Amino acid sequence: MTDRPTRVQRLTEAALPTRVGLFRAIVYGDLTNGSEPVALVHGDVASGPPPLVRLHSECFTGDVLRSLRCDCGEQLDQAMAAIASEGRGVLVYLRQEGRGIGLANKIRAYALQDGGLDTVDANAALGLPIDAREYGAAAAVLVDLGVRSVRLMTNNPDKPAALQENGITISDLVPITALANPVNLPYLEAKARRLGHRIETSGSARPLVTVHYAQTLDGRLATRTGDSQWISGEESLRLAHGLRASHEAVAVGIGTVLADDPRLTVRLVPGESPVRVVVDSTLRVPLTARLLSDGNAPTIVATTNRADPRRRREVEATGAEVVVLEGDPAGRGDREQLRDTLGEPGNATLLRGGGARLINGKRRGGPPRRVGGAIATLLDRHGIEAVGELDIRRLRDALTFRRARFTQLGADVIFDGELEPQAESVA
Ligand SMILES: NC(=O)c1ccc[n+]([C@@H]2O[C@H](COP(=O)([O-])OP(=O)(O)OC[C@H]3O[C@@H](n4cnc5c(N)ncnc54)[C@H](OP(=O)(O)O)[C@@H]3O)[C@@H](O)[C@H]2O)c1
Predict the structure, then answer these.
(1) Does one domain contain both 306 and 176?
(2) What values do phi and psi take at 55, rounded to 5?
(3) Ligand 1 mean position to 313 CA, how many Å?
(4) Is 356's C-beta closer than 6 angstroms to any atom of ligand 1?
(5) CATH number at residue 398
(6) For residue 355, how far is its CA from the centre of ligand 1 (angstroms)?
(7) Which residues pair with 415 in a beta bridge?
(8) Would you tell me how many other CB atoms lie within 10 Å of the CB of residue 157?
């Protein structure tokens, strides 16, 4: 083994006040490769129970420039905040940019990803390792700090294994719960699918249902005449396409098909189009609707036995699948609706893209629900309300979000958050 715990030496240190609290910044020299790992130490970590520890690999674009392509900046913030709120812990900042391939190669890989490759295939196409990081220096830094046992904040199975190989005990694994943004969701899913990372969006399961829409600052989905194209800007539209690519199905109400004739395919970013689902109790969907006629992705029309059987055959003749549900197709909860319409056992992901009725649709319990959307411009009060009557009488019954945040994207502000579990029963 090349990594020995004696491989680093302290070069210098000083107090580093940050927005989340006071850290001690200790810069090390790595004797094997000349790099300079940094330990950000908060509180007394040499004694007491195993401290919270995060190994963070440098990401110039994410950490410094706050790029939305990755979750690095978000994870750095979350880790420092978690350490500060516990009162003790260490963040080891490792100078291995771009999973160890360096900045120039990382940007080369980004260019290939823009052409449709995922993060793993892009590295492979450049003849570069998928992940060239190593954690021997981090183990040596921890030993120097007197830390032999840690509660490791990570979703990456390589990190605990590497620390253990280098003599550090993992007393616990703590998931890092940086919230994915819709721009980086496909990247995070590739990491999960291909590198075995866990995507932690809620501390429990990944949300099965995402509700996404664009609204005006005063909460309108469209003008009084139903015009909604486009409330949000180009960047937000790309983001909407990224969301489509990262869900198995996208659902809209028939009102949206009649008003906008949407295609609901993925066109502005690389990725596969989801199955398109239209909730349409009486089969008002026009046979010329683009999602029936373009053949670019499978389409399912969820209807009821109130629909005329002849109409049903006409819709089926376009190539769409018609699923007849009992009662109100959208009233029985997303999970059941999804299972019924997609034949999935209940773990497929659904993007609800509007309109107003579908966004507001009542649901019973079910999986964590993520809500996001672009906010821009102003309309008058006769525009179509994005969120209608929720029948909330007391403030304490209001719907609240966890890990809610706003991100500026182009001219829009993007809201992204997960409904608190108690809110889901009434949402
Ligand atoms: N800004 C945005 O992001 C955005 C996105 C999409 C749409 N829009 C706009 O929204 C407007 C359309 O909104 P909308 O409310 O008229 O249409 P909608 O929600 O697309 O469709 C309403 C219809 O869908 C069915 N439905 C959907 N959810 C239901 C539920 N929970 N319970 C019962 N039925 C449900 C019902 O069909 P049945 O009548 O067959 O029962 C209902 O009449 C358009 O102007 C469109 O441009 C804006």
Answers:
(1) no
(2) -100, 115
(3) 23
(4) yes
(5) 3.40.430.10
(6) 4
(7) 373, 406
(8) 13
